[in-house]
């Protein structure tokens, strides 16, 4: 997938910086997977692809899809979100996460997330997980998509493609949720 095939709102300079930062992070933290990175740019409107699967060996985005953010992140100002690391806030938290074992939850298969930064270090106790939901459409649209309780929530088909990658990795894959004002 080339940069021209990703979302129209895609900031390639910011994305490239995040990839370089993750590559540096992996060198210092070899307990994490170096083959794939997941990145969610929450500054892209929710109706557009803003969740990216990056193949670090091939050095390219290999998949992308829609991702819901938490309704607690809404501000009632178009294209403006807030992020919190507070229990019961229903808000999305920014930062790096490690993706851990899967389990069967309310929405079927889900992956436990561990926040690695001060901005998301309560993710595990807040039950912030990576999961799918039928309300997330498969194709981009102009209107905003549904909201979550703070979890990065994906379209069902996109989630199925992603789990084929996650389920065979020996080390936890990193997810970075970020936002540019």
Summarize the structure.
It contains two helices and nine strands; from the N terminus they run H-E-E-E-E-E-E-E-E-H-E.
End-to-end gap: 26 Å
* Arithmetic mean pLDDT: 94
State the share of residues found in helices, binned by percent. 10-25%
C-alpha Rg, in Å?
A: 15 Å
| Poorly predicted tracts of residues | none
Order of helices and strands: HEEEEEEEEHE
Major sheet: order of its strands?
3-2-1-9-5-6-7-8-4
Quickly count the helices: 2
The total beta strand count reads 9
Structural class: alpha+beta
Largest sheet report: 9 strands, mixed
Shape: globular
Beta fraction of the residues? 25-35%
Brief descriptors of the model:
2 helices, 9-stranded mixed β-sheet, 181 residues, globular, alpha+beta
Summarize the structure in words.
The chain is 15% helix and 28% strand. The protein is built from two helices and nine strands. With 181 residues, the protein is of the alpha+beta class. It starts with 11 loop residues before the first helix and ends with a strand. The relative contact order is 0.23. The chain has helices spanning 12-28, 156-166, and strands spanning 36-41, 51-55, 60-65, 67-68, 95-105, 108-115, 129-132, 153-154, 173-178. The protein has a nine-stranded mixed β-sheet.
């Amino acid at each position: 997938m080339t940069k021209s095939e990703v979302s129209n709102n895609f900031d390639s300079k910011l994305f490239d910086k995040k990839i370089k930062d993750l590559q540096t992070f992996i060198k210092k933290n070899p307990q994490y997977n170096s083959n794939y990175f997941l990145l969610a740019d929450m500054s892209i409107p929710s109706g557009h692809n803003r969740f990216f699967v990056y193949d670090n060996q091939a050095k390219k985005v290999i998949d992308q899809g829609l991702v819901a953010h938490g309704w607690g992140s809404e501000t009632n100002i178009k294209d403006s979100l807030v992020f919190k690391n507070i229990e019961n806030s229903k808000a999305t938290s920014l930062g790096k996460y490690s993706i851990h074992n899967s389990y069967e939850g309310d929405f079927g298969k889900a992956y436990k997330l561990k926040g690695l930064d001060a901005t998301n270090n309560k993710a595990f106790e807040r039950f912030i997980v990576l999961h799918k939901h039928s309300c997330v459409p498969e194709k981009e649209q102009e209107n905003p998509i549904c909201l979550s309780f703070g979890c990065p929530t994906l379209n069902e088909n996109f989630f199925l493609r992603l789990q084929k990658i996650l389920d065979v990795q020996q080390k936890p894959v990193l997810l970075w949720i970020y936002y540019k004002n």
